[in-house]
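hey m, so remember when u said the tokens were messed up on ur end? i reran from scratch. heres the input so u can diff it against urs
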Amino acid sequence: MTTSLDGYATDVNGNFDWAVPSEEVHMYVNDILRNVGTILMGRNLYDTMRVWDDIPTQGTGGPMDGPSPAMNDYAKIWRGAEKIVYSSSLDEVATKNTTIEHSFNPEAIKKIIATSTKDFDIGGPHLAAHAFAAEAIDELHQFIAPVMLGAGLHWLPTDSANGSLQLIDIHKFDNGFVHLHYRMHQ
């Protein structure tokens, strides 16, 4: 998750245009996600991310003006992953390898995770709150943008996340972003 320095995933209006990664940051994110077999996300994140089905995996063109090599690479990662969208109102999806679940079932997720040889990516603060409550998260990756928002949607649940973390890695980028990688202590 990319956050502001003060811990918000979006500003008070739901915008995250301040979180656009540089090519260097985007390639780093891709390397983290390369082993992801399943992406879990809520409806809002799905609506934002589904454009990756149309972004080319090579070259430029498509719905964006001049996709970069990092964008081409992420389009491959996105298309190769299974996607589960959690939504009580969505009835169909427009992207490949995507299913809809109308509620978060912690036991079903734990079973899928236990039998997978690939990593899982849980995107979005609301869904992450459910995953934290179910103790289904083993690592956290926070990309901190050098901005302060003062208010908005906090990236971590404030009422259901607790526990200690082990710092695995810190990485600084040329554009001022910082990556923090933590492992959850069980």
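this time it looks ok to me. The longest strand covers residues 165-172. if urs says something different then somethings off w ur setup not the seq
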